[in-house]
Design goal:
51% helix, two-stranded antiparallel sheet, 12% strand
């Protein structure tokens, strides 16, 4: 049985720009009950790069189990790992090994859903303390797109047989 290898790369810079844009657009004109603009407090910008790195890793830890059935072990050289070292492990890269009947047309939608998940998850964690009501919206969005990504991974070009009958 042949397998289809897929490689996904989510760069630190691209995801950071996505989170920054999401937070900027979401809170551009938002004010608190006293009429104070919340933009400065809620925008996720370069002042929070170490927090971004932490949440980026957390998002990776959350999405990886959803992909694990297809993840392929890629041998790497042993290296010292430190979360504060911004020169290493900046990007999220993983390899999937899909069955030969995997619907290849789903690769781009899966890529989009995983990126949406990572951004929504980071926004959820960012707003958890600052604005819990908005955090709940991002938490629901993250859960939804993660389920959608898992569903897309299961799309096949052949129909399943049950009791030797095609549906």
């Amino acid at each position: 049985m042949n397998r289809i290898p897929l490689i996904f790369i989510y760069s630190h810079d691209n995801i950071f720009q996505g989170v920054k844009q999401e937070s900027s657009l979401s809170y551009k004109n938002k004010v608190d009950k006293d009429g104070n603009n919340l933009f400065e407090q809620l925008v996720f910008d370069e002042a929070y790069l170490s927090k971004f790195r932490e949440l980026f890793f957390d998002a990776q830890a959350e999405i990886s189990p959803a992909l694990s059935a297809y993840m392929r072990e890629v041998p790497v050289d042993t290296a010292y790992y430190e979360i504060q070292d911004f020169s290493k492990d900046r990007d999220y890269t993983f390899h999937l090994l899909m069955p030969e009947d995997y619907d290849r047309h789903m690769t781009h939608p899966i890529d989009i859903k995983i990126r949406q998940f990572i951004i929504a998850y980071i926004m959820y964690r960012w707003l958890e303390i600052k604005l819990p009501s908005d955090a709940a919206i991002y938490m629901e969005r993250a859960a939804k797109v993660k389920d959608e990504a898992k569903e897309l991974l299961e799309r096949r070009t052949t129909r399943p047989k049950i009791n030797h009958q095609m549906f």
